[in-house]
Amino acid sequence: MMNLSRAVVRSFATTATRRSTAVGKEQIEKGYFEIRKVQEHFQKKDGKPVFLKGSAFDNVLYRITMALALVGIGGMTKLFYELSVPQKQE
């Protein structure tokens, strides 16, 4: 009984790197290397935020989002001004 509990604890305590080196490169899926290439692309140190590193389409979406946010802020500012300043009675 004691050996079984030790084996269970040891299986959870074994590090992932030790297990992966035992598997060997021939059993690693092809998709893993494609994912690694994508990760390397997004982790490059080029000064861009990660949400702009995808493509030019990301840049367009970002600019549209910022423009709509500014329009919304302007509309809210106008609304607050109209509600806080009394209108002149004619």
Describe the fold and architecture.
This protein is mainly α and 90 residues long. The protein has one domain: Cytochrome C Oxidase, Chain J. Helix content is 69%, strand content 0%. The protein has four helices and no strands. The protein has helices at residues 2-13, 16-23, 30-42, 56-84. The radius of gyration is 28 Å and the shape is elongated. The mean pLDDT is 82. Its main location: mitochondrion. Keywords: Membrane, Mitochondrion, Mitochondrion inner membrane, Oxidoreductase, Transit peptide, Transmembrane, Transmembrane helix. It is found in: Mitochondrion inner membrane. One of its GO terms (biological process) is regulation of oxidative phosphorylation.
Summary of the model, kept short:
With 90 residues, the protein is mainly α. It is 69% helix and 0% strand. The protein is elongated and about 95 Å long.
**What is the ordering of alpha helices and beta strands?**
HHHH
N/C terminus separation? 94 Å
The biggest sheet, with number of strands, parallel, antiparallel or mixed sense and barrel status, is: none
CATH topology: Cytochrome C Oxidase, Chain J
Total E-strand runs: 0
CATH class: Few Secondary Structures
Total individual domains: 1
Q: Poorly predicted ranges (pLDDT <50, ≥5 residues)?
A: none
| Gyration radius, in Å | 28 Å
Rounded mean pLDDT score: 82
Q: What is the H level of CATH, i.e. the homologous superfamily? A: Cytochrome c oxidase, subunit VIIa
How much helix, percentage-wise, in residues?
55-70%
Please identify, by name, the CATH architecture.
Irregular
Number of helices: 4
Q: What global shape is seen?
A: elongated
Beta content comes to: under 5%
The structural class is mainly alpha
